[in-house]
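FW: tagging you since you asked about this chain on Friday. Here's the raw sequence from the shared folder, copied in full. Didn't touch anything.
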Amino acid sequence: PMTTEAEGAEAPRTYVAPPVDVYENEDEFLVVADLPGVSASDLHIEFEKNKLTLEGARNPASHGATLADEYGGVTYRRCFSIPRDIDPGKIEAELDGGVLQLRLKRSDAFKTRRIQVKTS
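HL: got it, structure written out here
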């Protein structure tokens, strides 16, 4: 899926939505995104007001005169609404072989707890 967004006076920019899997357990959400050819320096992850944005650019390689450009530059972008129980200070990101693993840890205040009942 492709979307186009305008940014200021620049020409409209085309984004490609990368394939993403999202998993949930009691402690965290795990977002796995396929971002082939994107380096860590070209990947930007932002979390603001419960909105998570992933954006990464794959720049075209220069090997001489271009005869075909099917694997050229592309900008990936995905946005997610995130539950309020995420602790922004505990978000972890790892990029390995073009696969991003983003761990969104739940805040301790929202985790399920078992309450011990005392007897007198």
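FW: Residues 27 and 84 are 14 Å apart (CA to CA).
HL: agreed, and The first strand starts at residue 2 and ends at 5.
FW: great, closing this out.
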